[in-house]
Amino acid sequence: MNLYIDFDGVIVDSIKVTYKMLEEKGIDIKDTSKVREFYRELDWFKLLENINQINSSIRYIKMLEKDGTYKLYILTTVNSLNEIEAKVNYIRKFGLNIPIISVPKGVNKNELVDAKDNILVDDYSGNLYPWENAGGIGVKFSEESKKNKEFITVSSLGELNHPKFMKRLIKRL
Which CATH number goes with the domain that contains 156? Predict the structure, then answer.
């Protein structure tokens, strides 16, 4: 079974940080053209140098990689080549050799990879709905561990090989 892990908002705290930057620049989050321009022009290398991991995400990815229960991938939406390069460098600097699949902004993740019977861990429900409609299993990532009636919810990647998670996963299959 393939396990696809989102980057922004699951591995690192880039969503909160960039939303704050947008606010400071006076860019309305609903102004999609200005938001896309902001993300295209952002210095992703500098951003990722100073960003926090979410709930020891890299440590848990290493554990999942070693465990071998899943075939791991990072599946991340991107706005520019600079962003792709910075994210690859970020992951590689921790010694992870997991494939990183870049999804152009505006393309559903399930259009790039086969969702059927595979898991996507994502903080954005808008990615999980089409994933599940394509036969995949959507896992909602929420730092606050908010329960979600539509998706299995985790607050840490360390939960992905826990017996409780496995029970919930089996129920969904």
Answer: 3.40.50.1000
Q: Measuring CA to CA, how many Å separate 99 from each of 24, 36, 43, 96, 151?
A: 34, 25, 23, 9, 25
- Do 131 and 116 have their domain in common? yes
Gyration radius (Cα) of the chain, Å: 16
* Model confidence pLDDT, tens digit, residues 32-85: 999 999 999 999 999 999 999 999 999 999 999 998 889 999 999 999 999 999
The secondary structure element, H or E, covering residue 89 is helix 81-92
Q: Within this chain, do residues 27 and 61 fall inside the same structural domain, yes or no?
A: no
Shared-domain flag, residues 62 and 38: no
Q: How far apart are CA 79 and CA 167, in angstroms?
A: 36
Q: What is the pTM of this model?
A: 0.92
Buried/exposed code over 69-81 (b: 16+ C-beta within 10 A; e: otherwise): ebebbbbbbbbbe
